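Subject: design request, 139 residues
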C-alpha cells in the first residue's frame, strides 16, 4: 500500500513495474544488469477519486499514454532497488500534486477611489504630453 495522503492511498496491485537496461554511462554493469525501472500506473482504472484522476491526467502531460496509463521512468541510480524507490516517490509526488484542489478565483471590483486616482493620473499625463507640442507662432 502506497500512502499519498492520510485519506488517499494506492494498492500495490495497481502498479506494474518493468526493469529494463539503463542507457548512458556505467560500463559493463549497464550492459549486464536491468537496473532502470519503468513504473506503469493505470489512471483510468485506478481507485483514485474522479477529480484527482482528472487533475492527474492534465498534470501528466506526455507521460500519459493514449490508454490512460501513466509512465514513470527512473534510471539515475546504479541499483534496481534505488531506482524502484525513486520511481515510486516520483509517482507519489505527482499524485499528491493532483490531490490539491485549486482555489477558485473570486472576481473583485476596483474601488471608486482607485478609479478616480487612475483617471487623475491619466489627465495629468495627457496635460504633460499636450505641453510638448510646438510653440505657437503668436510672437
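Subject: RE: design request

Done. Sequence follows.
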Amino acid at each position: 500500500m502506497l500512502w499519498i495522503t492520510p485519506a488517499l492511498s494506492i494498492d500495490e496491485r495497481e502498479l506494474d513495474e518493468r526493469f529494463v537496461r539503463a542507457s548512458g554511462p556505467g560500463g559493463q554493469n549497464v550492459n549486464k544488469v536491468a537496473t532502470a525501472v519503468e513504473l506503469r500506473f493505470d489512471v483510468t482504472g485506478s481507485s483514485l477519486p474522479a477529480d484527482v484522476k482528472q487533475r492527474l491526467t492534465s498534470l501528466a502531460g506526455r507521460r500519459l499514454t493514449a490508454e490512460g496509463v501513466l509512465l514513470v521512468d527512473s534510471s539515475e541510480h546504479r541499483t534496481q532497488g534505488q531506482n524502484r524507490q525513486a520511481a515510486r516517490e516520483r509517482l507519489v509526488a505527482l499524485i499528491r500534486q493532483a490531490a490539491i484542489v485549486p482555489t477558485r478565483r473570486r472576481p473583485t471590483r476596483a474601488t471608486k477611489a482607485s478609479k478616480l486616482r487612475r483617471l487623475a493620473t491619466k489627465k495629468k499625463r495627457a496635460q504633460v504630453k499636450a505641453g510638448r507640442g510646438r510653440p505657437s507662432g503668436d510672437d
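The mean pLDDT is 82.
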